[in-house]
């Protein structure tokens, strides 16, 4: 074998070793060429990638949007976020496109991944902070405080947390007069197949509880495909869904015409509440507003508080 062939063989072996380690050539170059420069930056100068729609909303609410270099595909609000580079779906991340943006900090939702991609970012010297995601008022506040601490804007985070705590208190006080909790069945599209229903431990379960509704799906955790028998057994008073789900099923009428929904009292009465998905399920800064809107829809005639400081112009689109 000549010198050229030997050189090609060496390159081939190196590439094989890198693949075995799960490290691409671009990642190797990044690791050897730029980590030292990045490590000298302070958090106030951080180049941030936000992975998770609610996290991105929090960054904007904290006045730190100028530090963002990219977001994920679930970051749809505010509209300015959609103008940033998109690193893809939060559960299907790849390290190399993120590293190409030279971030110093990745704020990742609790269920972002895969973990191998996040490990590669850490190996390359990028700080990765997991942001907890508990679908409760305390969970929203914790999320805000975590992001604020990561961005070194703790005072702004404390102000936002206090505002949200006050809004959740106002919401709960307004709902104390509610005496009946309607059974709510959330429908979520995954492709064009059978809708998924939300059980316990889901964001849907959390927002329904905040609005003083009752999740119609009992004894099931997570999101599960919905059978006709399960819908009938749930006896929902109201269906709840997202604008995206309505669009995927071809419209409100088409969704309600599905046999498993039409067979229920809620289906026959066409009681269907439709909301923006990120607003409804994000558990971010607009969650008090989302719960108030849902409560108005579930408890007709109920007067809800004006939640000051919440901008809702875009969420109504």
From TrEMBL:
Matching Pfam families = Peripla_BP_2
Q: Which CDD domains match?
A: HutB
Q: Does the keyword Oxidoreductase apply?
A: no
Keywords noted in UniProt:
Membrane, Transmembrane, Transmembrane helix
Which domain of life does the protein's organism represent? Bacteria
Cite the PROSITE patterns for this sequence: FE_B12_PBP
Q: Where is the Fe/B12 periplasmic-binding domain?
A: 47-302
Q: Where are the transmembrane segments?
A: 20-37
InterPro entries to which the protein is assigned, alphabetical: ABC_Transporter_SBP, ABC_transptr_periplasmic_BD
Q: What is this protein called?
A: Hemin ABC transporter substrate-binding protein
The organism named in the record is: Rhodovibrio salinarum
């Amino acid at each position: 074998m000549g010198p050229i062939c030997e050189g090609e063989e060496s390159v081939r072996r190196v590439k094989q070793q890198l693949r075995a380690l799960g490290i691409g050539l671009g990642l190797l170059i990044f690791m050897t060429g730029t980590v030292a420069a990045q490590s000298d930056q302070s958090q106030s100068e951080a180049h941030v990638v936000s992975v998770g729609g609610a996290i991105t909303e929090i960054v904007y609410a904290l006045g730190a949007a100028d530090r963002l270099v990219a977001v994920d595909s679930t970051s749809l609000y505010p509209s300015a976020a959609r103008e940033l580079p998109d690193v893809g779906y939060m559960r299907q991340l790849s390290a190399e496109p993120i590293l190409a943006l030279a971030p110093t900090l990745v704020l990742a939702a609790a269920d972002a991944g895969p973990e191998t991609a996040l490990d590669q970012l850490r190996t390359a010297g990028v700080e990765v902070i997991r942001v907890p995601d508990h679908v409760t008022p305390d969970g929203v506040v914790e999320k805000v405080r975590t992001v604020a601490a990561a961005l070194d804007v703790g005072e702004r985070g404390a102000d936002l947390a206090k505002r949200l705590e006050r809004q959740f208190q106002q919401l709960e006080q307004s709902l104390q007069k509610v005496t009946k909790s309607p059974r709510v069945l959330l429908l979520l599209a995954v492709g064009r197949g059978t809708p998924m229903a939300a059980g316990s431990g889901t964001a849907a379960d959390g927002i329904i509880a905040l609005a003083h509704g009752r999740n119609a799906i009992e004894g099931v955790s997570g999101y599960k495909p919905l059978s006709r028998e399960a819908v009938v057994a749930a006896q929902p008073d109201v269906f709840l869904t997202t604008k995206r789900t309505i669009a995927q099923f071809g419209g409100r009428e088409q969704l309600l015409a599905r046999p498993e929904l039409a067979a229920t009292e809620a289906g026959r009465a066409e009681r269907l509440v439709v909301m923006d998905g990120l607003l409804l399920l994000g558990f971010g800064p607009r969650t008090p507003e989302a719960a108030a809107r849902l409560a108005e829809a579930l408890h007709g005639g109920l007067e809800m508080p004006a939640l000051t400081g919440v901008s809702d112009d875009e969420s109504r689109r």
